[in-house]
Amino acid sequence: MVRRLFAVFALLGAAILIHFSSPAAPSSAAAGSLQAPGQVQGVVKDPKGAVVAGASVALRHETTGATQTAATDSEGKFTVTGLAPGRWTVSVEARGFKTAQTALEIESDKKASVEIKLEIAETRAEVSVGAKGSVAPNSNADYRALREAKPAETYSVANLSLKRDAGTIALRSGTVTFLAPVLERTAIGVFAGDGELTLTPAVWTEKNYMRFLTGKDSFAESFDRMVLVFSDDTFEEIKKSGAKVETPARAADVLRDHQKRVRRSTERPRSMIEAFLNADDVENIEAELLAALYNPNRRGAFNAYIFGKKYSDLRFHIRPEGVFPGLPAPEEVALVYLEPGAREEGIVYLAHKETEYKQGTASSEEDKRIVDVEHYRIETVIRGERLTSSADIRFKALGDGDRMVRFGLLPNLRVTRVAAGEREIDFIQERRQEDGAFYALLPEPTVKGKLYTLTVEYGGDKVLEDAGGGNFAVGARTSWYPSVNAFTDRATFDLTFKIPNRFVLVSVGKLVKEGKEGEFAVSHWVSDVPLAVAGFNYGNFKKKSLTDDATKYLIEGYATSELPDYMRGAQSIGGMSPVRMMDTGMNEAQNSMRIFTHWFGPLPYGRVAITQQPQMNFGQSWPSLVYLPIISFFDSTQRWQMFGLNSGLTSFIQEVTSHEVAHQWWGHIVGWASFHDQWLSEGFADFSASLFLQATNQTPDRFLKFWDQQRKSILDKNQFGWRANDVGPIWTGLRLDTTQTRGVYSRLVYPKGSYVLHMLRWMMYDAKTNDERFIAMMRDFVQTHYNRNASTESFKRTVEKHMTEAMDLEGNKRMDWFFRQWVFGTEVPRYRLDYSFAPAEGGSVMFVGKLTQSEVSDNFRALVPVYLDFGGKVMRLGEARAVGNVSVDFQIRLPQKPKRAIINYHHDILAVESVSVGK
Predict the structure, then answer these.
(1) Full 3-state SS string of 87-142
(2) Whole-model pTM?
(3) What's the whole-number average pLDDT of the chain?
(4) Are 531 and 668 contacting, i.e. CB atoms less than 8 angstroms apart?
């Protein structure tokens, strides 16, 4: 849903820098770590000396980073055992109080005591959206047992192979120490010794990507340490083949190093993979394991966290419910290397199980959800940069036996209470910097088809940032509320916001009520149409609106009068007030709605709000709500005075509004099934922007320039010598961004995804009916997937319903050839047309030509369009069929002599070069 401007520039003399901090050196084992552990007993009280029950207590070793957590009981007391000697920091959090911290020295085999008094937090508005909860986070006994499990028994291993799908873990020699069982299941093991992981890709697309990333068609890595987390029969397999031995001291060190690695949160990610795995919403491994242990219906999972000799942080996963909870993907098998700055860092392998490929059942349309959210009812209070909310979430269980539901909630938003009806229930949410993901533990296993409602109360910061001048940057746009399956589920929303009177809030849905309550402005927004995601924008906005007669759509505009603080130096430029250009954005939105309604069919939302955000280098679109960068609210003279001549900036501004409005169709009404299919959103929105340029400019120049820029984005080399197209097919999606290919996802998926539609359009074009067939196909695609998620496969089926006879290049009435080349492949042809015009009988002209297709494989197929230019009027003559590296000769009698012949005039086919040479 994002259109970004990829440019580096200085703003008004102030350079904008992004700092990448170096990874901290791994800490050595704490001195005395082999000594007997100590413990601490404490009590937490309020300022008047009364005890505080349900307070969250966290202890962190200042040398090793090891952590322990607890919660105060009804008498305000807590006890933590097993503490390594050394200096610890004790942090206590409780609702209504400021966070308290104190330092504590733990001595070997001794008990320390501490009393902590809390201070009352700042008084906030007398507007409440919930009550304080009595159930402390992370207090579930089974979860605590997993989180704090200690070594229990050890087995020696020799020449043992653990075959897991495409991967094999060979344990040549060493020991496996298993932690204490939980729920009568042993689920965590620590290996120390000599081992090797090998993996051979099960499908050619993954083999090609592995070759790009590592230079090899298969993967092999030796290691001396590994942690196994599993719900399959790994324990029985190792126990059967090994002999029980004494537990080595090294096992505890390996476990500690593993926990430090996987529980960390990275405030400033240094790579796409680090952002994905270690950013705000770090996966809580013990919570995920507990979800598997609770449900006997789940198929066994297997996870290996490997300390490799070359690949220091290697992760091999077999997860039948889907490898990555945070990435919409149905694949069950993955190999990930995390090392920011390393050449090979990335998701090295991601695939379905080998048996699925053999049986032909692998598909991105697989549904791995455990619940389907139907409705959110959220009340939110905003004051300053703080947000406090209460959310009622109604969902339907999609399977039997599940007790754990994971929510996408920003870790800075601290959950205070979770309830099922009147009953408060357990939940998991560790510290912001460590495993901050939020899980609710249902009191009973789910029953398929049954409806459930949970109430979640939470609050915190980092959703809003006051940018000054009445401008607020709204972040966490999918996680400001406890979302489930954002962009995969669709739900109705009932949203109430209470904000300071001087500001204006605009939300998704329709405004059904607004008023004032004391110092607050209150607005109530409802969406009867199910939405993929909900959001809002906020600031000291001025509002305008108009109703378009053609589409019957309400177009709204929201912009501020003043600039954000970081642009204060621009006040000397005349008229630098965003609200001045609000009409331009609304007019572009109105024209976009008309154009796209004609091509794709009507939308159900009834309104779209075009809103200003203080960020300047990207736009974003939620259902009925568009966020535009502040620079799109300046005129061309003002942009020139700030940035000088910048063709990339000009193109971005000309396309960003139409691109984001197009997402009302692509990404919202028609969603995507998996991350592989996101090109159906971003590529289609880029294509839609080209339709806007073609319809709103009197000459084709801007339209043709757009497609030439798209071609260059795909084929121009970066600083490392890589063309975006060389990294992988658009099917690879977000995985395209690596250390040496930063930005390739946007440089490839957006333009090449749009090229797929563009090429289909011109193959379907007919001189008599023009674009009728293509429009019918696009409208059919929208109606077939109305408020549903589309996949590459389902789009292909729609294309095949509308394909012309000429498009059947393999004679099977299928478009396999096209999708194989352009969605799953990376080949790009080169074309040359050599031609001449010669007088013929009756005053006619003989057009003699030779079309050459080169730099492709023998099976590469294309319909290459040929155009004639009659003094400025360009007409399509027809197309030549080419297969492989071939030259196609033809001659055609024409009634009159053209000025010239042209191939690929509309950039009808993505090509390295298209040259026409006349004699």
Answers:
(1) EEEEEEECCCECCEEEEEEECCCCEEEEEEECCECCCCCCCCCCCCCCCCCCCCHH
(2) 0.84
(3) 90
(4) yes
